[in-house]
Amino acid sequence: MQGNIGNFALTNPISLITSKETTDFTREDFLKVIKEKNLDRITFHFTAIDCKLKELKIPIISQMQIEQILAEGERCDGSSLFKGLVDTGTSDLYIVPDYKTAFLNPFEPGSLDFICRFLMPDGSLASFAPDNILFNAHQLLKNNTGYELHALGEVEFFLIGPQQNKIYPTQKQRGYHSSSPFIKTGELLNTMLRLVAQVTGNVKYAHFEVGYIENIQSDSTEINGKCAEQLEIEFLPTPVESTADNVVLAKWIIRNVAYQHGFVATFAPKLAHGVAGNGMHFHMALMKDGENKMTDSEGNLSNEAKMLIGGLCMYADSLTAFGNTVSASYLRLVPNQEAPTNICWSDMNRNALIRVPLGWTKVRNLAMRINPQQKDELKDLKHRQTVELRSPDGSAFAHLLDAGLVMAAEWGLTHPESIEISAKHYTKGNAPEEKEKLQYLQSLPASCAESSRLLLQQRDMYERNNIFPSIMITYFSQLLQSENDGNLNKRLLDMTVEERLSESRRIMHKDLHRH
Questions:
Q1: CB-count exposure of residue 120 (10 Å: 0-12, 13-18, 19+)
Q2: Residue 66 sits in a domain of what CATH number?
């Protein structure tokens, strides 16, 4: 979350001009920003059913015109943005700016930008819009449990560009946290980090990831023969509605920076066999009265945290319908690639579906142990315990996946049996190597077809309390079925080695920019 306003390099410029936190922005503040920065347009952004950021550019002609736009929003064609969900006969929707999301466009100077929400003709939230589904799910959680869910996303991606010189080469699967000169795209990552931090105000850090491909073999001329380095930008925890917005904004910024420098950025789940895929892990924390409630007084996991884990285990298999949405997703979910294959949880184990990472729960002011010259402790430090879901990848529909996570959290906190479910799915070691555990640990789906079947079987878990519209569940089940991958593994095994490599590459590379 943003702290107190200060004149720091990455502080939101609108906050600097208004001396306000983003949550306090008003229409009058934006008029001041427009005049001070001499802006000539407003840009409305909104997330459509394809999970990409859309935009509407509005020229600033007069104060009356722009005040009306800021007060009432604009209209759009819902049947185009939500094709298959909205009928063309009743397709008009309002798009209304969410003031706290305001930012200055880093790619097109002169524009004041907003994330918008979709409203129906009567002014109610459009129930089929992914961001509104997430909002409604979070309201259900808060009303039924008294807890809020804060979350953060880890956005992994490959930057693909010209083959690099052979000086200081990077080794395959050895790129994790590497620095220059072994990594060559550091300046691009610095630019992405700066812009994502300034626009969202909630970035934790960025680093280079494990994956590296010296020479991509592909039928796609866009990437064939090029070099790929894997990177990650990780956020700070925010209320879950903002978490999904931050992920979509980050992908928009990353792609734009890459394009400006002649690179391709892709969040595709997998690019090559034997090379790490692009995950999109989500960390979660239950909050009440501004306090993290994931641990007890002794720093151990609280019952509420275990109930959250139990809920996640209950929903895990069908959540792949929103977190793993293309066939290539299931070429990533294989053993010993730091990607899960079974429904289980563990402490710090990166092969588990749900991981409990270090959270500063039993130690404070660690730097004083390394720097004895520091005599004064930093007071009122809070622990940062989360639980991490590691199955989603870059094909995830962030708002809908996060809505599913909230529904899982609500189920866990309102069903006492979730504690028992959590205990049953705990593993101390590497689950694929624990044969006794594997006898009863359920496997994750192995294809889009299987995810579709599970979503339809468990649709009541999402449609309860009218959170996920029935039409949305039907839409996604059909979207997954269109991948036609029900016999994917058998089909690949029946091929020669050369045929299998060729077909795998086709599957991996057909969705470079789908989401």
A1: middle
A2: 3.10.20.70
Q: Note whether 349 and 429 are within 8 A (CB).
A: yes
Sign of CA dihedral 184, 185, 187, 190: negative
**Total structural domains in the chain?**
2
Of the ranges 198-202, 222-226, 287-291, 381-385, which one carries the lowest mean pLDDT score?
Answer: 381-385
Q: Has residue 445 been placed in a domain?
A: yes
pTM: 0.95
Q: What is the 3-state secondary structure (H, E, C) of 253-309?
A: HHHHHHHHCCCEEECCCCCCCCCCCCECCEEEEEEECCEECCECCCCCECHHHHHHH
Count of beta carbons in the 10 Å neighbourhood of residue 466: 10
Q: Evaluate if residue 432 carries a pLDDT over 60.
A: no
- Output the six-digit token pair for 36: 């001070």
Q: Tell which phi-psi region holds residue 173, choosing left (phi > 0), alpha (psi between -120 and 50) or beta.
A: left
The pLDDT of residue 337 is 65
Rounded (10°) CA dihedral 426, 151, 263, 260: 180
- As a whole number of angstroms, the distance between CA 346 and CA 357 comes to 9
Q: Calculate the CA 462 to chain-centre distance.
A: 19
Which has the closest alpha carbon to 258: 219, 229, 291? 229
| φ and ψ at residue 261, rounded to 5 degrees | -105, 10
Task: List Cα–Cα distances, 291 to 147, 265, 383, 403, in angstroms.
Answer: 10, 37, 9, 22
Tell whether 76 is covered by a domain: yes
Helices 240-260 and 130-145 sit at what angle, rounded to 10 degrees?
A: 150
User: What does the block give as tokens for 301?
Assistant: 């996991």
Range of the domain at 360: 136-155+218-228+249-369+384-509
In a domain, 6, yes or no: no
CB burial readout 135-160, b (16+ within 10 A) else e = bbbbebbbeebebbbbbbbbbbbbbb
Amino acid at site 425: H
pLDDT of 176-193, one tens digit each? 999 999 999 999 999 999
Q: How far is it, in rounded angstroms, from Cα 110 to Cα 70?
A: 17
